[in-house]
Amino acid sequence: MIILSSIVLSSLIKEQPVSIQVVFILMNVTDGFYFRFNQV
Predict the structure, then answer these.
(1) Which three-class secondary structure state does DSSP give residue 30?
(2) Which helix (H) or strand (E) holds 29?
(3) Residue 14 Cα distances to 4, 7, 18, 19, 30, angstroms
(4) Which pLDDT tens digit goes with each residue over 3-27?
(5) 6: alpha, beta or left, given left = phi > 0 and alpha = psi -120 to 50?
(6) Which partner from 2, 14, 36, 38 sits 20 to 30 angstroms from 28, CA to CA?
(7) For residue 1, which of 40, 35, 30 has the smallest C-alpha distance?
């Protein structure tokens, strides 16, 4: 999942630098979900 995100992130950097913030937000949200699932 992290590798996939990094690939998407690198491709977005080449395409649209503006959407990088959106990707980071999505990554933070997914990380939060992973933490909750791991705790449960």
Answers:
(1) helix
(2) helix 20-39
(3) 16, 11, 11, 11, 23
(4) 777 777 777 667 665 666 777 888 8
(5) alpha
(6) 14
(7) 30
Q: What is the pLDDT of residue 19?
A: 66
Distance CA 21, CA 6 (A): 13
Half-sphere exposure of 35 (CA within 13 A, CB side): 6
Sorted by where each begins, the domain ranges of the chain are 2-39
Residue at token pair 């791991």: 38
| Cut 0.85: pTM above it | no
Q: Scanning the structure block, which residue is given the tokens 């690198």? A: 10
> Looking at this protein, which amino acid is placed at residue 34?
Y
